[in-house]
């Protein structure tokens, strides 16, 4: 049975804005991978929103053109992945269209998911990456004859502002973010945006 996680967001600020939950890559300064606004929803003051997900990983791709900050990644294909099995997939372009093929269990069992871009992939036309619960979290520019190993050991962060789900964001430039750390055997956390725009994060009572 898949474990369900939950974040209850309470907007106690005086601002209308977008609550954004994203995942932070283990090496935040790795230039190959970009972070996406994984969950984003507009929320009024004095409103509570609840976000629930499972931790199932997946492979994703999108025709993005050149991958730059601010663009929105909308997955064209989502393929369920696993860590120890079905952890490697090939990205190809056949008859003028991109697709994932050959989902398989690779030789590298190290907590990463692997995407092989074959020699049919043109430069600066598409991006590939991984996600969780069907939505993309980290992506990279697809290029011919490359293999990407994407680490699944990420951490959860929350912020508030103006965001679109799937938007490429730079965690280093975000203001007033907070970590959401689930303690052992705790699967529901409450994140409160306070009146002074600080965060209070704690297990849900």
How would you describe the overall organization of this protein?
This protein is mostly beta strands and 205 residues long. It contains no helices and 18 strands. Strands 7-6-11-12-3-15 form a six-stranded antiparallel beta sheet, with no helix packed on it. A four-stranded mixed beta sheet has the order 5-1-17-18, with no helix packed on it. Strand 11 (127-132) and strand 12 (135-141) form a beta hairpin. It is globular, with a radius of gyration of 18 Å. The two termini are 24 Å apart. The model has no long low-confidence stretch (mean pLDDT 93).
Strand order of the largest sheet: 7-6-11-12-3-15
Strand percent estimate: over 45%
Query: Given the structure, what is the number of helices?
Result: 0
What's the shape?
globular
Largest sheet data: 6 strands, antiparallel
Rg, nearest Å: 18 Å
Structural class: mainly beta
Helix and strand string, N-terminal first? EEEEEEEEEEEEEEEEEE
* Average pLDDT taken over every residue: 93
**DSSP E strands, number:** 18
- Quaternary structure state of the chains depicted: single chain
The span between the termini is 24 Å
Low-confidence stretches: none
Task: Describe this structure in a few short sentences.
The chain has 205 residues and is mainly β.
């Amino acid at each position: 049975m898949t474990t369900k996680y939950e974040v209850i967001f309470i907007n106690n600020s005086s601002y209308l804005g977008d609550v954004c939950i994203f995942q932070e890559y283990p090496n935040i300064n790795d230039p190959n991978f970009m972070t996406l606004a994984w969950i984003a929803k507009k929320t009024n003051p004095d409103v509570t929103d609840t976000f629930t997900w499972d931790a199932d990983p997946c492979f994703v791709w999108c025709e993005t053109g050149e991958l730059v900050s601010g663009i929105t990644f909308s997955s064209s294909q989502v393929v369920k992945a696993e860590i120890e099995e079905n952890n490697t997939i090939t990205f190809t372009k056949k008859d003028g269209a991109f697709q994932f093929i050959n989902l398989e269990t690779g030789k590298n069992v190290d907590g990463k998911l692997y995407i092989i871009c074959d020699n049919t992939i043109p430069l600066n036309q598409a991006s590939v990456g991984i996600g969780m619960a069907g939505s993309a979290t980290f992506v990279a520019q697809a290029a011919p004859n490359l293999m990407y190993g994407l680490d699944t050991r990420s951490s959860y962060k929350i912020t508030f502002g103006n965001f679109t789900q799937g938007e490429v964001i730079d965690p280093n430039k975000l203001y007033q973010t907070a970590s959401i750390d689930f303690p052992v055997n705790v699967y529901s956390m409450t994140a409160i945006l306070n009146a002074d725009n600080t965060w209070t994060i704690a297990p849900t009572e």
